[in-house]
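Figure 6 in text form: structure in, sequence out.
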């Protein structure tokens, strides 16, 4: 499905030049970067105004805006003018990246020397004086090809910052009983520039009923059937779920107001299935595959985390419980012989009732893996349909083992006193059958046991974590750092956490 709720980064590059340096050096180096970007398949607009003074800065920003740029690369082709170059970030309404030119040859270190290595220091200090946030790569000095690679790294960061600036989270709640860990103080959302609209489940139910008989339902049913294939185990359920999908999509369009992007955090139990007639998990998964996360259990910061992951990856994401340990016998039989690099405590199962997009579930039956299909929620069936042999309204989950491959587990959350914090850990889903139910996978993260104790427990995170498919820790860390959020990560063996007992 098309990711139609995620922004694109439309990049522009502005060269700056200190007036006592040779201006053409900066302009020539800027042109070389544009050429390197073209070779690398990176679309970028070359702003022709070279910034030497404050009026140049305003003119360059105006040219970038007129060209449709929503993110900028500010390039120090030489030492650069501290004030004008940092005013660019103040005047431009979008993310900015600062990079500097490396010297090109030892045969031309008189007129051909730019001293941008030196200028980046003053640039950084001036950004701090103005309390401006900008993206600066790990080593921001390089050749044209080096800087093109840095710009490629900047693209997902810029996309995410643009997305957050235009995001509204729509919730239908309140949270279920005993889910207070997924708390959602609103102030921290405002600190990030994110809007929030909180609604009642009754509002959603009324809207759903108004969509009965919607002429679009059949086309959504047909699309669901095509996607599910052999996993379409309850065809009679599809019209109800299609009606709900249209309800959410229409609500998003009608309620996003002045914002451009939407994420949902919906209450899905205990009243939902009986009143709506199904579990919403499969519909939630379909919206997530379009870049519209729908977090379970009114997890507002889970929805925020998922949206960040979708912006970075331009791919489907999911939200899972960090759910259960892997039994020792399963580890010894199925994991240790094939993946000896992982200890038992490096592994765990990530699970949810069935919100993981179909495209992220396995299509293989090798190793006793379970392919995706519509099923019923076993736990809810026990609770809400006691005594009924055949499930009815507890149907609607999307079950199967999550496809093997690299992942990034992460979450943005507030502490109980509303301070924003986050964690990021890269790992993988193993191609090992879970022997269980739900949308579920066996995850392996190096030193997960210590990370679990000293970050997840030690920093008081709830049980929900967002999952991006692929290793995206670098971009996530950059985004969160720019937003001023402290990031915890899984430390290597021997690198102790501050709370870790060195004698244990």
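Output sequence:
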């Amino acid at each position: 499905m098309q990711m139609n709720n995620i922004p694109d980064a439309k990049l522009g590059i502005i060269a700056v030049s200190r007036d006592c340096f040779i201006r053409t050096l900066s302009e020539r180096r800027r042109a070389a970067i544009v050429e390197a970007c073209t070779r690398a398949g990176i679309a970028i607009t070359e702003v022709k105004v070279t910034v030497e003074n404050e009026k140049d800065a305003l003119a360059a920003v105006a040219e970038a805006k007129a060209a449709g740029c929503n993110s900028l690369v500010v390039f120090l082709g030489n030492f650069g003018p501290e004030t004008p170059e940092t005013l660019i970030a103040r005047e431009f309404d979008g993310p900015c990246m600062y990079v500097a030119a490396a010297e090109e040859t030892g045969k031309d270190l008189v007129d051909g020397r730019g001293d941008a290595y030196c200028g980046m220091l003053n640039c950084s200090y001036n950004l701090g004086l103005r309390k401006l946030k900008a993206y600066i790569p790990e080593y921001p000095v390089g050749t044209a090809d080096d800087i093109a690679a840095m710009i490629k790294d900047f693209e997902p960061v810029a996309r995410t910052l643009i997305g957050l600036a235009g995001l509204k989270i729509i919730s239908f709640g309140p949270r279920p009983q005993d889910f207070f860990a997924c708390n959602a103080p609103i102030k921290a959302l405002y600190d990030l520039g994110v809007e929030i609209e909180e609604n009642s489940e009754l509002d959603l139910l009324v809207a759903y009923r108004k969509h009965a008989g919607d002429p679009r339902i059949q086309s959504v049913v047909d699309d669901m059937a095509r996607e599910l294939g052999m996993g379409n185990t309850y065809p009679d359920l599809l019209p109800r779920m299609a009606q709900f999908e249209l309800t959410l999509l229409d609500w998003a369009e009608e309620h996003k107001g002045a914002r451009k992007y939407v994420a949902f955090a919906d209450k899905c139990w205990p009243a939902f299935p009986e009143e709506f007639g199904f579990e919403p998990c499969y519909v939630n998964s379909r919206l997530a595959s379009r870049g519209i996360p729908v977090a379970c259990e009114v997890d507002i910061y889970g929805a925020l985390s998922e949206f960040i992951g979708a912006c970075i990856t331009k791919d489907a994401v999911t939200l899972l419980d960090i759910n259960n340990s892997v039994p020792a016998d399963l580890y010894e039989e199925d994991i240790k012989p094939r993946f000896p690099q992982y200890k038992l405590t490096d592994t765990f199962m990530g699970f949810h009732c069935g919100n993981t997009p179909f495209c992220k579930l396995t299509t293989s039956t090798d190793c006793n893996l379970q392919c995706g299909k519509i099923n019923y929620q076993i736990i809810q069936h026990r609770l809400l349909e006691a005594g009924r042999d055949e499930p009815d309204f507890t149907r609607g989950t999307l079950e199967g083992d999550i496809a093997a491959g690299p992942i990034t587990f992460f979450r943005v959350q507030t502490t109980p006193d509303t301070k924003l914090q986050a964690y990021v850990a890269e790992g993988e889903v193993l191609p090992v059958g879970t022997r269980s139910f739900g949308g579920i996978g066996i995850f392996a993260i190096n030193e997960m046991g210590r990370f679990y104790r000293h970050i997840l427990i030690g920093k008081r995170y709830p049980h929900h974590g967002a999952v991006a498919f692929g290793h995206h820790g670098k971009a996530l860390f950059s985004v969160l750092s720019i937003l001023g959020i402290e990031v915890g990560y899984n430390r290597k063996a021997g690198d102790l956490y501050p709370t870790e007992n060195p004698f244990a």
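Caption detail: The CA atoms of residues 415 and 421 lie 7 Å apart.
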